Amino acid sequence: MSMRTGRTARAGQYAALLGYLVFLAFPFLWLVSTAFKPARELGSLHPTWIPDHPTLDNFRKAFDEQPLLQAAANSLIAAVCAALVAVVVATPMAYVMARRRSRLSAAAGGWVVISQAFPLVLLVIPLFLILKNLHLINTLWGLIMVYVVWALPFALWMLIGYVRAVPAELEEAASVDGAGRLRTLVSVTAPLLAPGIVATALFAFITAWNELFFALVLLKTPEKQTLPVVLTHFIGAEGAADLGPLAAAAFLATLPSLVIFAIIQRRITGGMLAGAVKS
């Protein structure tokens, strides 16, 4: 009876997981299907999953109507720089807060969590005024600064958890063997934090790559605008969307995140403490 109950529970878990995957995959699959449909099929009263007459006209039209390559380059620069700066700043801060536990560290950690509850509208006016005084409005560097500020609290919170997952005994053993603090951090702690650093950088990159609100407010000239802002240009003044080119451009905009995640997912899911046993 217990074995049968266990199989039933496992089957239920797999069914729930499959349903969740279908729920997540449905918007992307429909986006891909729409991107390859001709205009006649897009206006059909009986839509189909697979286009009857697949076409690349939507992609050609999207590139002809909007500067997608320039916008993608702007998004890539902003997202990569923001991710690198956020990780470089957050990693030593997370290590200190995780290893030097005190009331100050606890208060700082609480502030990190509370800061995530602030709405974007509450932050955009102070950030706009600061960037205006620094003459960084309508610049990628100003946008990168905003992305770093926005991603840093959650990146710090993530890395604190990864640092605490690394046993302090490993650092103590290295110290007993004569390694200094810097050597211990570089040779022992840093390799074990690599999956966490990669995951945090991926989070910061995707957040910056997909962000629209700050980019819409801070960037004015077309040559400075990022990809999410350019995607809004496929929607007319009255809300009518040029659906085919919009779907094609949105499909291309999702590819970098998917490719990056596919490349580094093994590093993220790999064992953090692999090779940590002292020989």
Helical stretch count? Answer: 12
Radius of gyration (CA) equals 24 Å
Structural class computed from helices and strand pairing = mainly alpha
Q: Tell me how many strands there are.
A: 0
Summarize the structure in words:
The protein is mainly α and 279 residues long. It has helices at residues 2-35, 39-42, 57-65, 68-99, 103-115, 120-133, 140-165, 168-176, 181-210, 213-218, 227-231, 243-269. The longest helix has 34 residues, at 2-35. The protein is globular and about 75 Å long.
State the main characteristics.
single chain; globular; disordered C terminus; mainly alpha; 12 helices; 279 residues
Layout of helices and strands, plus pairs?
Blueprint: H1 2-35, H2 39-42, H3 57-65, H4 68-99, H5 103-115, H6 120-133, H7 140-165, H8 168-176, H9 181-210, H10 213-218, H11 227-231, H12 243-269
Describe, in short, the structure shown.
The protein has 279 residues and is mainly alpha-helical.
